[in-house]
Amino acid sequence: MDLVIRATVVFFFIFLITRIAGRRELSSLEPFDVILLVVLGDLVQQGITQSDESVTGTLIVISTVTLLSVGVSWISFRSPRARVITEGEPLVLVQDGQVIERNLRRERLTRGDLEEEARQQQNSSLADVRWAILEKDGSISFIAKS
Amino acid sequence: VAVLPVLALLNVFGQRPTTTSARSLAAGLTVTAPARLRSGLIFQVRVEVLAHRAIASPRLVFDRGWWDSMSENSVEPQASNESTENGDVVLSYDSLGAGRTLVVWLYFQVNPTNVGQRREDVALEDGSRVLARVHRSLTIFP
Do residue A56 and residue B9 have CB atoms under 8 angstroms apart? Predict the structure, then answer.
């Protein structure tokens, strides 16, 4: 019983952490982030299974996390309001060449980050961009002025 | 996928403790321990003896199943004497007056390769005379 409860608590805590961390942080992992993820995985394992070394325990935890994941995705599918909480919304960063600083700050992005991303997508200047949108998966879409 | 977590919540795979008791005119014996466990788990066993009349040489006799492929972490209070009889483990304590209670805590960890079901009876004896016996079994999931 305790395994299911611990797995559930950790699942929702990680879910909360990923929402707080922000999309850009998670979509572009630096070497430090990768190491942090590995350490985090080890800490999570200790917290959930503790001294349990059984196959049964492993199956229970995997089933619980899978069930919760399916549950959250089902709720997101059924409820647009829940979808905003679980997945977030696309965020407009540039409109008609004008950078929306408030939204950049919200996602802890600098103008330099945005310009770099624009260059990588063959946009020479933000002034030439009609829309730049931070998508739910953390990528930035650029739509050029025609 | 949902079956396993539901069964786990219903304690099918352990480790919620269960209590088993036995009484006689001379004494009462209560054992609280998990009846289902998984490999690697650390667990507590509590044995409580209530003397209805004086017990000169209280002895707790544990089936070998308690120690077989288990790591013993500690036993408190420590017995005045430890011995074995036909593979069973005997913990002897000092005399117990009428109305007195003896509580013994044992801490174990299940060895990772330990799987299956075993008998885990506990008997309370005064010398060689059995005063009470509880019948238990333990199931260990792989």
Answer: no
Percentage of chain A modeled with pLDDT above 90: 26
Residue B73 structure tokens:
């972490």
pLDDT value at B135 more than 90: yes
Interface contact flag, B13 A60, Cβ < 8 Å = yes
Per-residue H/E/C for chain B: CCHHHHHHHCCCCCCCEEEEEEECCCEEEEEEEECEEECCCEEEEEEEEEECCCECCEEEEECHHHCCCEEEEEEECCCCEEEEECCEEEEECCCECCCCEEEEEEEEEECCCCCEEEECCEEEEECCEEEEEECCEEEEEC
Closest residue on chain B to A49 (Cα): B41
Taking the Cβ of residue A65 and every Cβ of chain B, the question of whether any pair is shorter than 8 Å is answered with: no
- Residue B9 structure tokens: 């919540």
- Report the mean per-residue pLDDT for chain A: 86
- Mean pLDDT lowest among A18-22, A50-54, B81-85: A18-22
Mean pLDDT of chain B: 93
| Cα–Cα dist A96/B86, whole Å | 89
Q: Kindly report, residue by residue over A76-89, the tens digit of the pLDDT.
A: 888 888 888 888 88
Cα–Cα distances (Å) from B133 to A115, B101, B140, in that order, read 79, 16, 22
* Bridge partners for B76 per DSSP: B105
Per-residue pLDDT band at A114 (split at 50, 70, 90): confident
